[in-house]
């Protein structure tokens, strides 16, 4: 009889906890997701700008790849201090600062958001939430690709500016507006959330405290630089980011190489792979949390991306076949990113989490430089985008193998 009563109590506690975390999610996830949609437009519009800019400015494919990737060097240099600043000054001020100054001092939003979510969600709830947050990437592609194509066609020649110049200006405005919303709406921590009752705050804080027991919360920011686990996570993330930014920056070019013409037409077709990615990201995120299994939920999407890139590269003469398998590649590659963060956040805690997340993201984002530059170089050398897609497929395989080398007991929570 006592065991039945105990089970009923546990069920009631879990039901109460689920209700509180639903309330938390409805409050904070839509806003940070909106921030990321706006933030990611700069990756989307760079890929579209190439369709006009490269010809008008006389850029080779290599030069475009270099230009598309070079701002990731700034990310590499600035994201660790940015995350430490967020941990010290609070998410509201720091994320708002990033959004308002976007394009000038933009490093830090993504790792800062991942860190911010660790303040609100324990490990076993985080994959689903990060997947929801990172659905901003495909959402940005779904709306940003057709929008970029339309602006480039509709505004071309207006006030002597090229269409791609208007696109950069118009799509920069929302970042400033969203930054002002963040200042008014976002809370730095659970304790400062006036929209939660004291009892609801205790529910969230207790879940976070129970989760922290499994982490090395006593580690310092400097200690992460000597932690081999952090560097191994950086390798895995580098491999997955290779695929992500290869797809983001070169998607319009991949579509155009199949014979599609017209910027708006390319934009509409480029949005289709991102639709499949939204479904895959959230399905895998929910499955990973419900099963508390992390490794195979990363390996399977990585293999989906591998197959998608290989087949799409092999059938560039067919728009339909290429689009189907680019959709498979997008579903796999974009699912890897949110599922990946369940690995390091399972063992990093405290100040070490702020530094560790930033280190991993900084090193991984070097792939944001390597990937577009490498694809551009290979396209100049071979005259085709196929070789670049084969390289992206190989990178995903290396990442999947590295994930399987990660001890399950370290990350399956």
Structure in words:
This protein has one domain (12-411): Growth Hormone, Chain: A, CATH 1.20.1250.20. The protein has helices at residues 2-57, 61-89, 91-100, 109-118, 123-134, 136-154, 163-170, 173-185, 198-212, 228-256, 263-291, 296-314, 319-340, 350-364, 367-382, 386-404, 408-411. 53% of the residues are buried. The protein is mainly α and 413 residues long. 79% of the residues lie in helices and 0% in strands. The longest helix has 56 residues, at 2-57.
Low-confidence stretches are: none
Radius of gyration, whole Å? 21 Å
Oligomer: single chain
Class based on secondary structure composition and strand pairing: mainly alpha
The CATH superfamily is identified as MFS general substrate transporter like domains
Mean pLDDT: 83
Shape: globular
Give the topology string: H per helix, E per strand. Answer: HHHHHHHHHHHHHHHHH
Beta-strand percent range: under 5%
Which key terms come to mind for this protein?
single chain, 413 residues, mainly alpha, Growth Hormone, Chain: A, 17 helices, globular
Write the layout of secondary structure elements.
Elements: H1 2-57, H2 61-89, H3 91-100, H4 109-118, H5 123-134, H6 136-154, H7 163-170, H8 173-185, H9 198-212, H10 228-256, H11 263-291, H12 296-314, H13 319-340, H14 350-364, H15 367-382, H16 386-404, H17 408-411
Condensed summary:
The chain has 413 residues and is mostly helical. Helix content is 79%, strand content 0%.
